[in-house]
Write a structure and sequence with these properties.
With 433 residues, the chain is of the alpha+beta class. It folds into two domains: 3-211, Jelly Rolls; 227-429, Rossmann fold (3-Layer(aba) Sandwich). 24% of the residues lie in helices and 29% in strands. The strands form five sheets. A seven-stranded mixed sheet has the order 1-10-9-8-7-14-5. Strands 3, 4, 6, 11, 12, 13 and 17 form a seven-stranded antiparallel sheet that branches. β9 and β10 form a beta hairpin. α5 (250-261) crosses α11 and α8 (316-331) runs parallel beside α9. The longest helix has 16 residues, at 316-331. The protein is elongated and about 70 Å long. Mean pLDDT is 93; it is low at 1-25.
Length: 433
């Protein structure tokens, strides 16, 4: 079974800037890899590195870790990071890939697919990422940038594919493709194989960056087939009241991306909008039980500040206290829900002078997110950057509320920062005239 047909059939689905990372962890592995290729190289979709002389170090391993640090420059259906194969037979290989932006690991033996998993989260943004795949007797786990993002109970490694005699970086080789296939485009800094499953701290120490734990947890939810509840709350902007001219609000775009475009069974997730026009952080603290807790969410997005900035009773100090309280309340929900903070968009202070301090409130949200290790989607900065340092008036309906174009920009930023951006997806490709 060829990789292309596997991908187009969706194979076995796993189950995809904010404040993404910390400094690399200090506790490196005490075990040396059996294979460690650190010759950084840019690949052009035709070039590759032949490591066949080292195939004996990995081909009999039944458990262990494959690790690769890479940065893409294109989006291809399948791009090999490391592949061990039998070049005399078709479809006999163990391959770690970046496939249309997703992370993939497959094990095939003479056309029999023993293991084939892809993430829904995407890593083809041009930044450097570190992928680690651990296989033990009980299952396989994908790690992205130091955090686990997918787990399955299937447990196949190099030793599950017979007759492996070729080993390559940036291509796969078999009898049907004697010149190679699944060539990589971009930079690969390192590929390594260990003869044991590294721990999460060890993988973090070998990663070029380490994501926030909560971003890893969000990725795990996106890559899982278990239904989840996503809750977005805030004021009239999250509410999507009036100014969208009948187009979708940003929570509705996000819902379409998750519940439809990610396919089954993610259509069994629920995206709930409890934004209420006029809300402040204080009103959400007061009504938290009915607006958040009642729905049993796994992820809670909070975008507030536009009304706080115009309300004397919720000045900067109270706003900071309320944000901290809301983060704590979300994390205290059953199962330990994940908070997600989103700064409000900037406004035209000539039309809305009572919101002149909104930028200060956005900065407070950034500080709270950094202090409490919360994932942050910073729309305020993004909008100003997209407007060359000024408020992009074409995104606003009345100088304050985003119009349909503004809501689409909010949605795309949220989707991109949560590693779900696919230019081939209808939401991500949508433009509004």
């Amino acid at each position: 079974m060829r990789r292309r047909s596997v991908l187009l059939a969706a194979g076995t689905w796993a189950a995809a800037t904010l404040t993404p990372s910390f400094t690399r962890a200090a506790a490196a592995s005490t075990t040396a890899p059996v294979l460690d290729h650190r010759a950084e190289r840019a690949y052009d979709g035709r070039s590759y590195t032949d490591l066949t002389a080292q195939i004996g170090k990995v081909r009999d391993l039944r458990s262990g870790t494959v690790l690769a640090t890479f940065g893409t420059t294109s989006r291809n259906l399948a791009m090999t990071l490391l592949s061990a194969s039998d070049p005399t037979r078709p479809a006999t290989d163990v391959t770690a890939c970046v496939s249309a932006g997703r992370l993939q690991f497959s094990v095939r033996d003479n056309g029999v697919v023993k293991q084939n998993h892809l993430t829904r989260t995407m890593y083809d943004d041009g930044a450097l990422h570190t992928l680690a795949i651990t296989v033990t007797g009980t299952g396989t786990t994908f790690y992205a940038d130091g955090r686990p993002v997918f787990t399955t109970d299937q447990a196949h490694f190099f030793g599950s594919a017979s007759g492996l005699t070729a080993l390559h970086v940036a291509r796969n080789l078999d009898s049907d493709h004697p010149g190679g296939e699944w060539f990589y485009t971009g930079t690969i800094q390192r590929v390594a194989v260990y003869d044991r499953a590294l721990s999460q701290p060890e993988i973090a120490a070998e990663s070029v960056r380490v994501d926030l734990a909560d971003l890893g947890r969000i990725s795990t939810i996106l890559n899982s087939d278990t239904p989840a509840v996503w809750l977005a709350t805030g004021d009239s902007i999250t509410h999507g009241a009036l100014w969208t001219d009948g187009w979708r609000s940003y929570p509705e775009h996000f819902q379409e991306r998750v519940r439809w475009e990610l396919g089954k069974p993610k259509n069994s997730d629920f995206v709930i909008d409890t934004g209420v026009s006029g809300s402040t952080t204080q009103s959400l603290v007061t009504t938290f039980a009915e607006r958040v807790a009642a729905f049993g969410p796994e992820v809670v997005s909070i975008m507030l500040g536009t009304n706080d900035a115009a309300t004397a009773s919720t000045g900067p100090a109270v706003y900071r206290t309320n944000l901290r309280r809301l983060v704590s309340d979300v994390r205290a929900l059953p199962g330990g829900a994940i908070p997600l903070l989103q700064t409000p968009n900037p406004v035209d202070v000539n039309q809305w002078p009572n919101r002149a301090a909104l930028g200060d409130y956005a900065q407070i949200m950034r500080e709270v997110a950094a202090e409490l290790d919360v994932v942050l989607v910073d729309h305020h900065t993004h909008w100003l950057e997209s407007g060359g340092g000024t408020v992009p008036h074409g995104l606003l309906g009345d100088g304050l509320h985003p119009n349909q174009r503004g809501h689409l920009l909010l949605a795309k930023k949220m989707i991109r920062d949560l590693r779900l951006f696919d230019p081939a997806g209808r939401v991500c490709a949508l433009s509004i005239p």
